[in-house]
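Quiz preparation item.
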């Protein structure tokens, strides 16, 4: 049961991630159509431009904000997302857990971030499909590199794979949502293996 109410802000994200090859995309989409709430209408398609702004300083990790806008629906407001560090304290946890804040903003978002001291770190285009299952959100998306800054028309795919993410944003202390996520992820095997991926370990391996 979701206890979200007035004055209670959902700011905890439980997350599982995986990837599939482009050749397996349609099979996975068919499976998700049968499992999710979008059975009659199909998934929501999105085509977005995302700009990642970074602020460094002090002894702590850099602060990142993700500014995102829809390229297919120009009237939709800009979307700003803050994602905190992954909580790895509980090794038995079935999913990643991190703090997050999502808000809609006005069109002068980039100017505001720059005036606050943030610098553009990188930008990309993402295209994909959004499914929902109760309060779970499942996205299947491909990320594209922009060959020219601010040019969302000249792009190329980063890889031939699709990123698959399963997430729930809820209030603190809702650890039981992990069971729903784990059970749903089991139904997607062997098409995709959804797991808790520690991106900090990946960064260390790349150094």
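Solution:
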């Amino acid at each position: 049961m979701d206890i979200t109410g007035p004055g209670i802000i959902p700011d905890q994200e439980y997350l599982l991630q995986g990837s599939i090859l482009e050749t397996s995309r349609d099979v996975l989409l068919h499976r998700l159509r049968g499992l999710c709430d979008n059975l009659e209408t199909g998934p929501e398609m999105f085509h977005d431009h995302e700009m990642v702004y970074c602020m460094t300083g002090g002894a702590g990790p850099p602060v990142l904000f993700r500014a995102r806008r829809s390229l297919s629906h120009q009237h939709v407001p800009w979307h700003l997302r803050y994602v905190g560090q992954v909580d790895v304290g509980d090794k038995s946890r079935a999913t990643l857990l991190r703090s997050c804040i999502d808000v809609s903003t006005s069109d002068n978002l980039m100017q505001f971030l720059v005036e606050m001291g943030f610098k553009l770190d990188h930008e990309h285009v993402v295209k994909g499909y959004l499914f929902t299952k109760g309060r779970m959100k499942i996205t299947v998306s491909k990320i594209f590199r922009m060959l020219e800054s601010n040019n969302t028309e000249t792009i190329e795919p980063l890889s031939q794979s699709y990123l698959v993410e399963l997430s729930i944003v809820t209030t603190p202390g809702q650890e039981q949502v992990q069971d729903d996520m784990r059970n749903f992820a089991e139904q997607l095997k062997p098409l995709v293996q959804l797991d808790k991926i520690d991106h900090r370990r990946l960064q260390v391996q790349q150094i």
